[in-house]
UniProtKB/TrEMBL annotation:
The protein's Enzyme Commission number: 4.1.1.33
Summary of the function given for this chain in its UniProt record: Performs the first committed step in the biosynthesis of isoprene-containing compounds such as sterols and terpenoids.
Keyword Metal-binding belongs to the record: no
Catalytic activity: (R)-5-diphosphomevalonate + ATP = isopentenyl diphosphate + ADP + phosphate + CO2
Organism this protein belongs to: Hevea brasiliensis
A Pfam cross-reference name: MDD_C
Family recorded in the similarity comment: Belongs to the diphosphomevalonate decarboxylase family.
Descriptive protein name: Diphosphomevalonate decarboxylase
Record-level Gene Ontology MF annotations: ATP binding; diphosphomevalonate decarboxylase activity
GO biological process, one term: sterol biosynthetic process
Domain Diphosphomevalonate decarboxylase-like N-terminal: 13-186
Mvd1 C-terminal domain: residues covered: 200-354
Subcellular compartments: Peroxisome
C-alpha cells in the first residue's frame, strides 16, 4: 500500500467584536441578523495552531484538540470539511512523486491536530480562531483556490465569529442578503498597520465557563427580545457606518464611544431576553465604572471596554501611555487574587495590531 503524508500548519489569532454579532436569522447556515465589526488580535497571546494531514493510510477523518481526540460528527465540522472538499484541486509533490487529483479528495481522509495557546476553559476566545484556522489549513492542503473572503463564508458555518479571523486588522462581517448565505462573509476594513498604536488588555475576571452558550443565548434572544429587533434594524446599521469612519480616521473618541455603547447594548439585549441572560458580573460592572470615570475625568476617552458572552473585560487603550496607566489602575483597584476575582491580565505584545 502507498504510504505518504502531506501536512500543512497554520496559525490564526482570535478576534474581538467592537460592533457585536448577536442573533441568527438562519441557524443552520449561521446567518446573522446584523453586520458586525471586529479587531483581530496579534498572533502571540490568543491564537490557534492547526496542523492538517492527509495520507492514504488514514481510515477516517479524526481530530485532536489540545492533544485530546474530539468527535468530528457535529454539523459545524462536517459543514467545513464538506465545503472545502468540494473546492479541492489537484495537488502534486514532484520531489516525492505524489499526485492527488481533484476526485481523490473525496476518498482521502484527514487528521487534524489543533492547539490553543490560551487556557481553553477560560471562556476567553471563542471558537473564532479555531474554525478560521481549520478552514484555512484545509484549504491550503487541498489547494482550494478561494480567496480569504470566500473562505470566511465557510469558516462562518463552523462558528459565526470565525469568519472575521481570516483577516488581520479591522474586519467587517457583512450579514448578506441571499438565502444560501454565499454573500454573508468577511471583508477587511483596514489592515493591521493602519492603527498600530492601539493596545489591548484582557482582564480575566473569571475563568469559569459561561453558563449560557452563545448558540442557546442567541436563539432565546431572537425568540423573545423586542429590543433586539430594534437594535438590528435601527441601531446597528448606523453604528457600522460610524465605526468604519472612526477606524479609517483613527478617531479614538468616536471609536471608544461606539465600542462601549455597543457592548452595553449587547448586554442589554441579553437582559431583555426571557429568561434574562447575565454574562457580566459585579467585577465586570466595576471595571466599566472605573473606565467611565477615568475617561470622564480626563475629558477625552483613554480606553474603550467591551465584553463578550462572559465576564472578562477586553480593554482597548488609545496608546502605550494610556495602557500603562490602565494597568496601574487595574492593579490598584483589582489586585490579583483578591476577592474581586480578577486573576490575571493578558497584555497584547507590542500592540494588538502588530
Ligand atoms: O461565533 P459565536 O457563536 O461564538 O458568537 C460570538 C458572539 C459574541 O462573541 C458575543 C459577539 C461577536 O460578535 O463576536
Amino acid at each position: 500500500a502507498e504510504s505518504w503524508v502531506i501536512m500543512v500548519t497554520a496559525q490564526t489569532p482570535t478576534n474581538i467584536a467592537v460592533i457585536k454579532y448577536w442573533g441568527k436569522r438562519d441557524e443552520k447556515l449561521i446567518l446573522p441578523v446584523n453586520d458586525s465589526i471586529s479587531v483581530t488580535l496579534d498572533p502571540v497571546h490568543l491564537c490557534t495552531t492547526t496542523t492538517v494531514a492527509v495520507s492514504p493510510s488514514f481510515a477516517q477523518d479524526r481530530m485532536w484538540l489540545n492533544g485530546k481526540e474530539i468527535s468530528l460528527s457535529g454539523g459545524r465540522y462536517q459543514n467545513c470539511l464538506r465545503e472545502i472538499r468540494a473546492r479541492a484541486c489537484d495537488v502534486e509533490d514532484k520531489e516525492r512523486g505524489i499526485k492527488i487529483s481533484k476526485k481523490d479528495w473525496e476518498k482521502l481522509h484527514v487528521h487534524i491536530a489543533s492547539y490553543n495557546n490560551f487556557p481553553t476553559a477560560a471562556g476567553l476566545a471563542s471558537s473564532a480562531a479555531g474554525f478560521a484556522c481549520l478552514v484555512f489549513a484545509l484549504a491550503k492542503l487541498m489547494n482550494a483556490k478561494e480567496d480569504n473572503s470566500e473562505l470566511s463564508a465557510i469558516a462562518r458555518q463552523g462558528s459565526g465569529s470565525a469568519c472575521r479571523s481570516l483577516f488581520g486588522g479591522f474586519v467587517k462581517w457583512k450579514m448578506g442578503k441571499v438565502e444560501d448565505g454565499s454573500d454573508s462573509l468577511a471583508v477587511q476594513v483596514v489592515d493591521e498597520k493602519h492603527w498600530d498604536d492601539l493596545v489591548i488588555i484582557i482582564a480575566v475576571v473569571s475563568s469559569r465557563q459561561k453558563e449560557t452558550s452563545s448558540t442557546t443565548g442567541m436563539r432565546e434572544t431572537v425568540e423573545t427580545s423586542l429590543l433586539l429587533q430594534h437594535r438590528a434594524k435601527e441601531i446597528v446599521p448606523k453604528r457600522i457606518v460610524q465605526m468604519e469612519e472612526s477606524i479609517k480616521n483613527r478617531n479614538f473618541a468616536s471609536f471608544a464611544h461606539l465600542t462601549c455603547a455597543d457592548s452595553n447594548q449587547f448586554h442589554a439585549v441579553c437582559m431583555d431576553t426571557c429568561p434574562p441572560i447575565f454574562y457580566m458580573n459585579d467585577t465586570s460592572h466595576r471595571i466599566i465604572s472605573c473606565v467611565e470615570k477615568w475617561n470622564r475625568s480626563v475629558g477625552t476617552p483613554q480606553v474603550a471596554y467591551t465584553f463578550d458572552a462572559g465576564p472578562n473585560a477586553v480593554l482597548i487603550a488609545h496608546n502605550r501611555k494610556a495602557a500603562a496607566q490602565l494597568l496601574q489602575k487595574l492593579l490598584f483597584y483589582f489586585p490579583p487574587n483578591s476577592d474581586t476575582e480578577l486573576n490575571s491580565y493578558v497584555l497584547g505584545d507590542k500592540s494588538i495590531l502588530k
